[in-house]
C-alpha cells in the first residue's frame, strides 16, 4: 500500500525523516562485551546499538539478542563478546529510499531496527517504531493539507457553481 500524497507535502523518504530529527548513532566495536553494549544502551536509553568493525557495520545488538543470551544461559554478559550474540546485518537503508519500502522490508525480514548507510558509513539506526511514528505524522500533515484545501475552495466568494 502506498502512502497518500499531496502536492505541497514532500514524499516520505529516509532522508526527510533524518532531516526532521537525525538520531545519534550509538555503537560498540566487535570486540566489546555484552555488558559494555548494555551500558551504552542504558546510557543513551536506546534499544539497540550498531556493532562496528572499524567503520563497517558488522551487526546490530539489541535487547532481543540479550534476552536470547540470558534464556539459553550461553554466557555471562561481562565476558561474552557482543559479536557472538549480535544479529548480522544483511539489510540496510539509504537516504533516498521511501519509508514505506523500508517498513515493507523490515516486516518481510522480521527486523526491529534498520541501519541507514551513506557511502558505506552509518548515518542512523532507525527502529520500526521510529518509522511508524513518522508515517503517522506524514498522514497527519497530508490530512491537514487536504482540510486547508477544502477551506480555501469553499470560502465565500471563491467557489462558484
Automatic annotation (TrEMBL):
**By its UniProt entry, which PANTHER family does this protein fall under?**
CBS DOMAIN-CONTAINING PROTEIN, CBS DOMAIN-CONTAINING PROTEIN CBSX3, MITOCHONDRIAL
Output the InterPro entries linked to this UniProt entry.
CBS_dom (IPR000644), CBS_dom_sf (IPR046342), Diverse_CBS-Domain (IPR051257)
- Organism equals Candidatus Accumulibacter aalborgensis
A Pfam family that the UniProt record links to this protein: CBS
Q: PROSITE patterns annotated for this entry? A: CBS
Q: Where do the CBS domain residues begin and end?
A: 86-143
Identify this protein by name: Signal-transduction protein
> What's in the keyword line of the UniProt record?
CBS domain
Q: Which SUPFAM superfamilies match?
A: CBS-domain pair
